[in-house]
Amino acid sequence: MKAYTVVVSHDGDLWVADVPTLEGAHTQARNLPRLEGAIREVIALVEDLPQGAEQSLRLEFAYEGLEEEASAAVRVGRRRADLDRVQVALAEETMTLVRGLVARGWSVRDVAHLLQISPGRVSQLNPRGR
Questions:
Q1: pLDDT at 76 (0 to 100)
Q2: Buried residues in 14-41 as b, exposed as e (16+ CB within 10 A)
Q3: Rounded Cα distance, 119 and 129, in Å
Q4: What whole-number distance in Å separates Cα of residue 2 and Cα of residue 41?
Q5: pLDDT tens by residue, 14-70
Q6: DSSP, residue by residue, 7-33
Q7: To 10 degrees, what angle do helices 108-115 and 68-103 make?
């Protein structure tokens, strides 16, 4: 799915969003969650997308003109989102390895030691020895 770059700035009490690649795709709101919802609706209207498609849009936010502390918050937020993606992938990989190794006869304690998790966690990830 296509990603849309949304340029966000702060103007007085309002947040302003613009999608430079879509003519007429701009809006404003008093807070960021509402701004995101509004720009999703605007993109869906401008692109003539089916109803409900706005929730699945991939948005990349570029913040302009923010003070340093707010810019730092944006950087930390992006790092947290990256970390969340890595944790999900790591959990899936861990479960696959636990199930595979236990199925090949490895002991719960050995698998736990290799993966640096508790034996109890190995048992949780491999219920009933599956």
A1: 96
A2: ebbbbbeebeebbbbbeeeeebbebbbe
A3: 13
A4: 16
A5: 999 999 999 999 999 999 999 999 999 999 999 999 999 999 999 999 999 888 888
A6: EEEEETTEEEEE-TTSTT-EEEESSHH
A7: 150
Predicted confidence (pLDDT) at residue 130 exceeds the cutoff of 70: no
- The answer to whether 112 and 88 are in contact (CB under 8 A) is no
- Per DSSP bridges, beta strands 14-18 and 26-29 are antiparallel
Residue that has been written with the tokens 């960021």 in this structure: 32
What are the DSSP calls for 36-87, one per residue?
HHHHHHHHHHHHTPPTTGGGG-EEEEEE-S--HHHHHHHHHHHHHHHHHHHH
Q: Assess contact for 22 and 5: CB atoms under 8 A.
A: no
Q: DSSP assignment, residue 116?
A: T
Instruction: Quote the longest CA-to-CA distance of the chain.
Output: 64
With tokens 């795709």, the residue in question is: 25
Place of tokens 């992006």: 78
